[in-house]
Amino acid sequence: SSWWRSVQPAPKDPILGVTEAFLADQSPDKVNVGVGAYRDDNGKPVVLECVREAERRIAGNLNMEYLPMGGSVKMVEETLKLAYGENSELIKEKRIAAVQALSGTGACRLFADFQKHFCPDSQIYIPVPTWANHHNIWRDAQVPQKTYHYYHPESKGLDFAAMIDDIKNAPNGSFFLLHACAHNPTGVDPSEEQWREISHHIKAKGHFAFFDMAYQGFASGDPEKDAKAIRIFLEDGHHIGIAQSYAKNMGLYGQRVGCLSVLCEDEKQAVAVKSQLQQLARPMYSNPPVHGALIVSTILSDPDLKKQWLKEVKIGMFCYSGLTPEQVDRLTNEFHIYMTRNGRISMAGVTTGNVKYLANAIHEVTK
Ligand code: PMP
C-alpha cells in the first residue's frame, strides 16, 4: 500500500542469514557450522532426554492458562539457584528482583529498557567482538554504546591489559556488559584470577556489571563452575544484573525460556524493581510463554531429572578459527560450507560424516 512505499528491505542478520543461505544451497556436500544449535551425528536436531522425560510428566496435567507477568515463580526460583548458588543468602534475603524472560535475548532487551528508563543518561560498554545482537538490543533501547577491548587477535586470547585500562578509563558508574562464560563468538574467557581483578576494578570505579550468561555449562561442562565469575562478583559485593537462557544448555531454543535478575540492596528495593520490570513487559508481550518454563521447572525441581540434565550438558560450542572473511567466502562459494564471516565455527555442526570434508576445505583455503 502507499503507506509503506518508503520501506526498504532490512539488512540480513549476519548469523541467521547464514542458515538461509545454507537452506537455499542444493549441494549434497553442504555443511552448516553457522548457527549455535546442537545436532546429532547425522546433523539432526537434538532434544535432551531429560527434556523428553519432563514433557512426558507434564503431558497429563497441562493447561493453557496465562502465567503471571513475571512468569513462572518456580522456574525463576530454580534459575536463580543456578546463577547465585543453591544456598545463596541473597535468595533467602529476597534481594533479587527476577522475572521470566523471552530467553536470553528477551532478558537482555528487558534490562536495556529498564536501564534506559531508570538511568536515562547512562551508556553500555560492550566487548569487541561480541554477539552481534547485543548492538541491536541496546540500540533499539536507545542506550548509547561504547566498546571495551576483549579479544587479542595475535595471541588468540584475552587482551587483558587493554580491557582493564578501558574499565579504568570509563566514566565512574558506567554499565559493563560481560559474558559470564563461553564468550560468543571467541570462546575466550578470563581466568579466575583475571575475573577477580576485573571485579576489583569494576568495583573501584562504581560500575554496574551486567552478565549475559547464555551458555552456563558449556565452558567447563559444569554449570556450577561456569557461574564462577558471577560468584566472584557477588563475593565482592557488586549489585549485578544477569540474563540467563535455556536455549543452549537445555536445548530449548524455540521455547524462548530465560530469566532476567537484578540484585538489589534489600527486599523492598527488589519488590520495586520487579514491579517495574513487569510494568515494562506488560505492554510488550504481557506475560511469557508457559510450556518451556514448565519443562525447566520440572527438570530442575526433580533431583533425578536434574542429575540427568547435568550429565547431558555438553561441552563447548564455538571455536574462533582465525579464518578471514575472504577465506570464509571461499569456503562458502567453493565448498558449500556456511559460517559467519568472522570465522566462528559452531562445533555442533561438525559430524563424523562431514569432518573430513570440512578439514580438507579449511586446509585448501588456508594453505
Ligand atoms: N547472548 C549471547 C552471547 C548469545 O550467544 C545468545 C544466543 N546466540 C543469546 C544471548 C541469546 O539467545 P536466546 O535468546 O536464544 O536465549
Automatic annotation (TrEMBL):
InterPro entries linked: Aminotransferase_I/II_large, Asp_trans, NHTrfase_class1_PyrdxlP-BS, PyrdxlP-dep_Trfase, PyrdxlP-dep_Trfase_major, PyrdxlP-dep_Trfase_small
UniProtKB keywords: Aminotransferase, Pyridoxal phosphate, Transferase
All copies of domain Aminotransferase class I/classII large, residue ranges: 29-312, 314-362
Keyword Disulfide bond: no
Gene3D superfamilies from the UniProt entry: Aspartate Aminotransferase, domain 1, Type I PLP-dependent aspartate aminotransferase-like (Major domain)
One example of a Gene Ontology biological process annotation: amino acid metabolic process
Catalytic reactions of this protein: L-aspartate + 2-oxoglutarate = oxaloacetate + L-glutamate
Cofactor: pyridoxal 5'-phosphate
SUPFAM superfamilies found in the cross-reference section: PLP-dependent transferases
GO CC term (a single one): mitochondrion
GO molecular function terms listed in the Swiss-Prot or TrEMBL record: L-aspartate:2-oxoglutarate aminotransferase activity; pyridoxal phosphate binding
EC number: 2.6.1.1
Matching PANTHER family: ASPARTATE AMINOTRANSFERASE, ASPARTATE AMINOTRANSFERASE, MITOCHONDRIAL
Family to which this protein belongs: Belongs to the class-I pyridoxal-phosphate-dependent aminotransferase family.
Note: In eukaryotes there are cytoplasmic, mitochondrial and chloroplastic isozymes.
Protein name: Aspartate aminotransferase
Source organism per UniProt: Gossypium tomentosum
